[in-house]
């Protein structure tokens, strides 16, 4: 009986050891050629990690290259205007990341003389840097034995070890962090951390992973138990809020329009948009007319055109926006108005950027 127990724990230790080795071997042969892979510069690694939070690599890479070109150093980013940072970020979503990025750059320059902290604890003090990002920078740039746990890592560990704890529960977060530390290779932490994240992104994908050709398939618990598609488990805590947005795209007597900057702590903070009429449900032209006095002199409005017949559904993490654009032509000369073509210079939500992209392709007579 005792030899069997010893054999069990020896086998478990062997599997945990070879898990990291297999990840490292796989990574050496399968890693993608990404622009931040060949550097230890913490500015570049930090920038890539912030951009890739909740963003796929194929979408985030062009933004990374744009930011590096616009802001080659952390000093350049710190000294830029927030409006310029937000404009470059336009289309990536989760704009708080961009504001935190800018704030953290200012901290690195103002508090640390342009040098990133070289400890996990020091990195955590930067705005927008949490456990995962601090671990990534610490391990990739400074070889500190800090395990990374992002969505890809959760998936790999949950499937391979058959962990059914919810990844977004308090117990689950702690368990996976401890497990990640236990199975990591501290002597090759830079490549190991990048390897397990890459493995989750390329091999152990969320849907339909190619388990037949997976180097871990002999000992993957989820594969053996037929639970690959069930793991990892995540508790659905968020109730999606449904909102109705009506954007009023004005055209005044000079052919100009109005933009307003969003304030407060809601979505798209500090971005610019057309005057917004939010309603509890879908509204018609008569309802829009009744609210025009809140924005312009309703008596001088000569035409209202509903631009899109069906609402555009824009899905955010916690809310779905049902959006209609209304073109409102007025004989009034609006104060603080700008030319429609100038709207593209402002950081705007992607919803408005896409509307403008279509609208500006039309002849000027169609939208003035």
Automatic annotation (TrEMBL):
Which superkingdom, per the lineage?
A: Bacteria
Enumerate the Gene Ontology biological process terms.
base-excision repair; mismatch repair
Keyword terms of this UniProt record: 4Fe-4S, DNA damage, DNA repair, Glycosidase, Hydrolase, Iron, Iron-sulfur, Membrane, Metal-binding, Transmembrane, Transmembrane helix
Which GO molecular function terms does the record list? Answer: 4 iron, 4 sulfur cluster binding; 8-oxo-7,8-dihydroguanine DNA N-glycosylase activity; adenine/guanine mispair binding; metal ion binding; oxidized purine DNA binding; purine-specific mismatch base pair DNA N-glycosylase activity
Q: Looking at the keywords, is Iron present? A: yes
| Gene3D superfamilies referenced in this protein's UniProt entry, alphabetically | Helix-hairpin-Helix base-excision DNA repair enzymes (C-terminal), Hypothetical protein, domain 2, Nucleoside Triphosphate Pyrophosphohydrolase
Return the cofactor note field: Binds 1 [4Fe-4S] cluster.
User: Top-level EC class, please?
Assistant: hydrolase
Which prosthetic group or cofactor does it need? Answer: [4Fe-4S] cluster
Quote the EC number: 3.2.2.31
Query: Which residue ranges traverse the bilayer?
Result: 6-27
Tell me which InterPro entries the record gives: A/G_AdeGlyc_MutY (IPR005760), DNA_glycosylase (IPR011257), HhH-GPD_domain (IPR003265), HhH_base_excis_C (IPR023170), HhH_motif (IPR000445), MIG/MutY (IPR044298), MutY_C (IPR029119), NUDIX_hydrolase-like_dom_sf (IPR015797)
Q: Where is the HhH-GPD domain?
A: 51-202
What reaction does this enzyme carry out catalytically?
A: Hydrolyzes free adenine bases from 7,8-dihydro-8-oxoguanine:adenine mismatched double-stranded DNA, leaving an apurinic site
Q: Which PANTHER family match?
A: ADENINE DNA GLYCOSYLASE (PTHR42944)
The Swiss-Prot or TrEMBL record describes its family as follows: Belongs to the Nth/MutY family.
Q: What does this protein do?
A: Adenine glycosylase active on G-A mispairs. MutY also corrects error-prone DNA synthesis past GO lesions which are due to the oxidatively damaged form of guanine: 7,8-dihydro-8-oxoguanine (8-oxo-dGTP).
Protein name from the UniProt record? Adenine DNA glycosylase
Organism encoding this protein? Pricia antarctica
